[in-house]
Amino acid sequence: RMFHVSEMWCYHWKWKLHHCLCLFTTYIICMQQAAHGCYDCRIVLTDPSGVFTSPCFPSDYPNSQACKWIIRAPHGFIIQLTFIDFDIEEAPGCIYDSLTLDNGESPMNLCGITAKGLSYNSTGNEMIVSFKSDFSIQKKGFNASYIRIAVSLRNQKVIIPQVPDVDAVSVAETVLMPELSQFTLCFEATKGSSDDNDDWKVFSYTDALSTELFSFGKSTKGHFLFVSGTQCILENALPRNAEFFTGTFQQLCVIGDSFSGSIGIYAKSTYHIVYCPGIFGKVIPGNGRLVLGSNSNEVSSLNGDIYNFRLWNFTMNAQTLANLSCDVKGNIVDWENEFWSIPTSALKAENNLSCGSYLIPSSAIEPTSCANLGSLCQATVNATTPTPPTVTTNMPDTNRNDKPNNGGLFYRISITVFSSSSNSVSKVHDVVAEWLNRTFQNWNYTVYVVNISIHPGSIKEGAREKRSIKSFGVLALLVYNSTNNINLEEEDIRQKLISNNGTMEGGYKLHTVDVDPVEKCLAEENPPNYFWPDTRPTVTNFTLCHGSSVQTASRTCYLGLQNYTSYWGQPDLRNCTENAADIANQLLNLTGEGQQLTSDKVNDVVQKLKKIVNDEEIDESLGSTVVTIFSNILTSSDSVLAASSSEALKTIDALALKIQFTGPSMSISTRNLALGVSSINSTSFKGGSFSVSPQNNASDFQIDFDKDQANAFASVVLPPSLLKNLSQDEFEVISRAQFTFFNKNGLFQ
Predict the structure, then answer these.
(1) Has residue 550 got a pLDDT over 70?
(2) Three-state SS sequence of 167-209
(3) CA-wise closest residue to 273 among 313, 325, 235
(4) Is 377 exposed, middle or buried (0-12, 13-18, 19+ CB in 10 A)?
(5) Would you call 361 exposed, middle or buried from its count of C-beta atoms within 10 A (0-12, 13-18, 19+)?
(6) Model-level pTM?
(7) Where in the cell is it found (predicted)?
(8) Cβ count near 402 (within 10 Å)
(9) Which of 24, 251, 408, 714 is 20 to 30 A from residue 221's alpha carbon, by CA?
(10) What are the DSSP calls for 283-319, one per residue?
(11) How do strand 408-419 and strand 305-312 relate by DSSP bridges?
């Protein structure tokens, strides 16, 4: 390790004793193809929406099919799949023909007419649908539609409301707005081409008495920034007589500093400074309300759309803004659902937003038609039945409220019927199914009966007739489309069934009737620190990841179609694993040029870097970011660095030991810290060297291995005899030498 104290250079170097274990794994890949050349039903679907069907639909599907559809969307979207029609050979456990739906969490098998009219949501951005048929008995199959649903605000823009306090778009009440003496604000916006109004606002921030404290907009004098009673006209920075915002999104960053009385404008890769003495020493009070658009009827709102509104409580320079990426989150307000209260009518998903997920190129969808399958499609006509109403289960609600509207309510129906005829179970099934569908047709409630199963019961002799009477237990699931928010009581369903007892054909009589609602999944904590409220079947709940104000976890309450009970799926915590590169970039921004760091803040940064280095795989890119953060920290005073110095040095050493690289050596050079790592082959080691020298016209250093630099600040020479006193075990595992150079001595106290 080398550092500079006055005119003295000090250094320290280390060996890394590194064991290497190689594990070879052989993968055997088995690919199954559909029989008889039906290859066109194994497709990846990437369009925003679409329709696909079983082979030959609406004719019967062929025997021996093995189809697979993979539906993919960009990150930030989920897939919603709806079965418009569904009829697959029914059997216990769907052991013959079946459709398997893998939503990313728990695959489910469907058959019969179970899924007709129902919708299913994926837990992530992919859903896999598999269909198989055996060697006999074909049905009509299925017709399914899918659509991608944006669940991330990054994939959506906001239409700026034009009437104050009517469908207002505001920062959520849970977001604490602090006092601001410095700020950086960035957003993208559009303006309608037909709008020639020159008096508007993009946002407005007010106190509890609706007194305006902070806003940005345009008046007849030009674009302005309003700060605590002072209106600053942004002359020369933004055009007065021309429109900056057009029909396409333009990004604008506004930087305010009350300590210098200056305002920075970063637009179209150009940074302008406007001096506004009126804001000198002014502080924007906290605990106010920020809305997009105008907060009063006196000034209109910008007639356009807004996107990626982010706010920080510190200033950024031109270089930082030029490199500002989508992953740098606003530490006061960010463009994520949790930071905003936005009515659905103001949201609009788009595919080409600057920070949205990149769309996957569309692929052609080959139809599974008779033309493709030739003689496989059987020329049969199925008997038609009345088309039931479509039922849609709840979509994941980004506001995390378990609302009953927009979804289905589920009821278990358990009845017993008597018959004096010696009919088979399949005959009983057909009679009861027809009776149930007829009973609930043209009712005041939109309901649909699915998944009917028949269970033979006891046989007894009739009292008057000298013939046996058979009993059959019937289980079915009734789905109520409750979009109109009309209550449906169990007793209403029971009385409807009893009143239609006489209409059952074939001499069947209704004996007992039980109707029970399918229970909600009960509230529970799983895993620790993740609380899930009572939730309806088929509804997905969202909650914040533990310790995060941005990332969300989700969990779905599933409906078991074998016994019609609800059960919790496993929590989806994939979003709760923070990305090390994202955290490092946030720390890089936090410690950047001009940032005043306290001892507590430095300690917090060092602890986060320690966790990254200890827990993550470190490649050269991530390692470079970490070294740059340490370089930024080294600009702090000795008193600020003192408490964290030991942990910082240990973390830098650990980084050098872990960083992965290719080739004989790697180096990272920054203004205050340089790191070099050289691979060592212990059996052929012939010595080596390391030197640090200034770069021409650059503030960083140049690092050289095995090269004698005449103008080097310092160098270390490793002689060929260096390894001779090591034990055999140590000698065999030597793998690298590491060198660190410090331009500041603040960590050596």
Answers:
(1) no
(2) CCCEECCCCCCCCECEEEEEEEECCCCCCCCCCEEEEEEECCC
(3) 235
(4) buried
(5) exposed
(6) 0.39
(7) Cell membrane
(8) 17
(9) 251
(10) -B-SS-EEEES-SSSSSEEPSSEEEEEEEESS---HH
(11) unpaired
Instruction: Report which secondary-structure segment, H or E, holds 272.
Output: strand 270-275
For the stretch 314-368, pLDDT in tens is 989 888 898 888 888 899 999 988 899 988 778 776 767 888 754 333 333 333 4
What integer pLDDT is reported at residue 40 of this predicted model?
63
Pull the structure tokens for residue 241: 């007589």
Question: What is the model's pLDDT at position 383?
Answer: 28
Answer for the pair 409, 446: CB distance below 8 angstroms, yes or no: no
Query: At residue 718, what is the residue type?
Result: L
The separation between the first and the last C-alpha atoms of the chain, rounded to the nearest angstrom, is 15
* Strand duo 182-189 + 250-257: pairing: antiparallel
What are the tokens at 273?
Answer: 């400074």
Tell me the DSSP string of 1-31. -EEEETTEEE--EEEEE--------------
String of b and e for 672-688 (b: at least 16 CB within 10 Å)? bbbbbbbbbeeeebeeb
Nearest 5°: phi and psi at 94? Answer: 50, 50
pLDDT at position 360: 35
Instruction: Give the CA angle between residues 647, 648, 649 to the nearest 5°.
Output: 95
Instruction: Give the single-character DSSP code of 440.
Output: T
Distance of alpha carbon 64 from alpha carbon 38, whole angstroms: 10
Both tokens assigned to 521? 């999944």
Q: How far is CA 351 from CA 48, 355, 533, 538, in A?
A: 9, 10, 33, 28
CB contact set of 242 (below 8 Å; sequence gap of 6+):
none
Amino acid at 239: P
Q: Please give the single-letter amino acid code of residue 116.
A: K
Region 187-197 average pLDDT: 83
Residues 6 or more apart in contact with residue 285 via CB below 8 angstroms = 179, 207, 213, 228
pLDDT tens digits, one per residue of 691-742: 888 766 555 677 787 666 667 878 888 898 888 888 777 777 788 888 898 8
Q: Is-contact 382 376, C-beta < 8 A?
A: no
Q: Is 538 helix (H, G, I), strand (E, B) or coil?
A: coil
Residue among 153, 145, 141 at smallest CA distance from 71: 145
Structural domains of the chain in order of their starting residue, each with its CATH number: 42-151 (2.60.120.290), 154-349 (2.60.120.200), 409-459+467-517 (3.30.70.3100), 524-572 (no CATH), 580-742 (no CATH)
DSSP strand pairing (126-132 vs 66-72): antiparallel
Measured distance CA(387)–CA(250) in Å, rounded: 49
Residue with token string 């399918």: 518
The radius of gyration of the chain from alpha carbons, rounded to an integer in Å, stands at: 34
